[in-house]
């Protein structure tokens, strides 16, 4: 079969790789039907995730059809259509028992496309398949479901829930890429007074309005003045960092009010300055996190019920074997207008 192989920073190829098979009784193998590219994949290619070894098949967001299951899998059978979660959980370690699957110490966590081969391939092995997949109803399309593999639970858990968004809050999302847009969408579930989106690209600010932001501002404008004008000079109740650069993190800490919360979602490959000389007296809470995906079943229920509108997130579509073109488009959003790309079997 073919897969998208990481060859070291800046290097990737769509090439022949071994077919996956059952290694552990709790494994399943899927035929990949729809897959997408994550900003984290770009961070890997940029050298920001040094744990990823050369030769690794990338990808951690897919919908597929089960082709084989191990003897220890009880909830799946060949032919089942499933969402493959970005997080794998052993189910028995201390962290899994409290729902913190992202911190699994039993061989799980974020491993797909990171520590084991991922899902940007024609077939993929899914460890801990009973806990790491979700059967999909016929009413949910592959494209809608694949957004629940990572970006929606990540934004909801690491951004909205960690940031403790409450009714009437002023919420700022710095970065209006896919993660930021998903943060805007899920923040609206809590009825904030204002959602402000900050980004460099005008196309992404326009997208943020579609997804529910009522105020948008260019990053090189004056976000601080805009936020202060909305809040009587105080600053935002919740600020979410959805880019992963030192400059955006520092902007978030400048935008938050005394007693407010900064929720970092972005993947950082470089150190960021923490201005404790200014923040220590302001009672500011800063959270970080890797998604646990404990919210995926609830988000899937909301998707089925029509309470989550993800229809505008996929902007570009490709056949699976055009993944090199898809990476090119996804990596140049300012020029291409790309949000999420979907690659599917023809």
Automatic annotation (TrEMBL):
Cofactor: Zn(2+)
Organismal lineage: Bacteria, Bacillati, Actinomycetota, Actinomycetes, Micromonosporales
Residues passing through the membrane, by range: none
Cross-referenced Pfam families: ADH_N, ADH_zinc_N
Record-linked InterPro entries: ADH-like_C, ADH-like_N, ADH_Zn_CS, ER, GroES-like_sf, NAD(P)-bd_dom_sf
Family statement: Belongs to the zinc-containing alcohol dehydrogenase family.
Signal peptide positions on this chain: none
Keywords: Metal-binding, Oxidoreductase, Zinc
Record GO terms (molecular function): oxidoreductase activity; zinc ion binding
Protein name per its UniProtKB record: Alcohol dehydrogenase
Organism field: Spirilliplanes yamanashiensis
Domain Enoyl reductase (ER) span(s) in chain numbering: 7-343
């Amino acid at each position: 079969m073919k897969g998208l192989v990481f060859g070291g920073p800046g290097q990737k190829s769509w090439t022949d790789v071994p077919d996956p098979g059952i290694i552990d009784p709790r494994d399943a193998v899927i035929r990949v039907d729809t897959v997408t590219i994550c900003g984290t994949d770009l961070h890997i290619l940029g050298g920001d995730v040094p744990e990823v070894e050369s030769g690794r098949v990338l990808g951690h967001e897919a919908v597929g059809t089960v082709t084989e299951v191990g003897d220890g899998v009880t909830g799946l059978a060949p032919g089942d259509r499933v969402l493959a979660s970005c997080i794998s959980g052993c189910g028995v370690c201390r962290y899994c028992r409290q729902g913190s699957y992202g911190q699994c110490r039993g061989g799980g966590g974020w491993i797909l496309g990171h520590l084991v081969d991922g899902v940007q391939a024609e077939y993929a092995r899914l460890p801990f398949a009973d806990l790491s997949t979700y059967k999909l109803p016929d009413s949910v399309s592959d494209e809608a479901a694949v957004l629940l593999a990572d970006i929606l639970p990540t934004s909801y858990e690491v951004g909205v829930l960690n940031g403790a968004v409450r009714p009437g809050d002023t919420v700022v999302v710095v970065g209006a890429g896919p993660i930021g847009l998903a943060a805007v969408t899920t923040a609206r579930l809590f009825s904030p007074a204002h959602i402000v989106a900050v980004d460099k690209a005008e196309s992404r600010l326009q997208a943020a309005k579609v997804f529910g932001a009522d105020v948008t501002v260019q990053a090189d404008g004056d976000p601080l003045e805009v936020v202060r004008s909305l809040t009587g000079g105080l600053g935002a109740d919740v600020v979410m960092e959805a880019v992963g650069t030192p400059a955006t993190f520092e902007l978030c800490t400048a935008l938050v009010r005394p007693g407010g919360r900064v929720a970092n979602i972005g993947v950082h490959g470089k150190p960021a300055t923490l201005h404790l000389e200014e923040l220590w007296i302001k009672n500011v809470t800063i959270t970080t996190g890797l998604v646990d995906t404990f919210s995926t079943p609830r988000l899937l229920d909301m998707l089925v019920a029509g309470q989550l509108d993800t229809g505008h997130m996929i902007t570009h579509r490709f056949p699976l074997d055009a993944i090199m073109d898809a990476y090119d488009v996804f990596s140049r959003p300012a020029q291409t207008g790309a949000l999420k790309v979907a690659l599917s079997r023809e």
